[in-house]
Fold:
Amino acid sequence: MKTLLHCCCGPCACGAIAAFGEREKDFTAYFYNPNIHPYKEYQSRRDSFIELMQQQNINYIINDSYPLESWLSDVAAQPQNRCRYCYRSRLQATAQNAAELGFESFSTTLLISPYQNHQLLIETGENAASKYGIKFDYIDLRPYFRSSQNTARAAGLYMQKYCGCIYSEKERYLNTKKEK
Structure:
């Protein structure tokens, strides 16, 4: 089954590549992440993703649009719901591209993180799948989380310090400051 695999970053992609390889899945990696802030962080994550894809000789697609303003305006009124919006915007774009490009299914590396809401990811993926007439390929990638990070470090990939959006950046550094 041909799968379009949404990738949030290189480090998370490391574990997904291993998992998909074990399952002998035919996939193409897809980078689309308008939530990442600031732009320099976006560039670092995108470039790390490209570096990994080239190291591993994996087919990939970059959607390098960066509609930060519309992303922020859609979450600013209810930042507590930002993850729901973030999942939906990225998974719908992945499902739409997968359908248009003739893939049979799509998935996401967001499923590797123990910090993400898996039930919401599944619901969001299935809704996007239904909307675009394609299958959402759920694989619980969490068992690959630690090895994925180790692989990324060994490969010299950029390792981010927060999920991606301006709100998660604030939480990361505000919490760090409070702990000190």
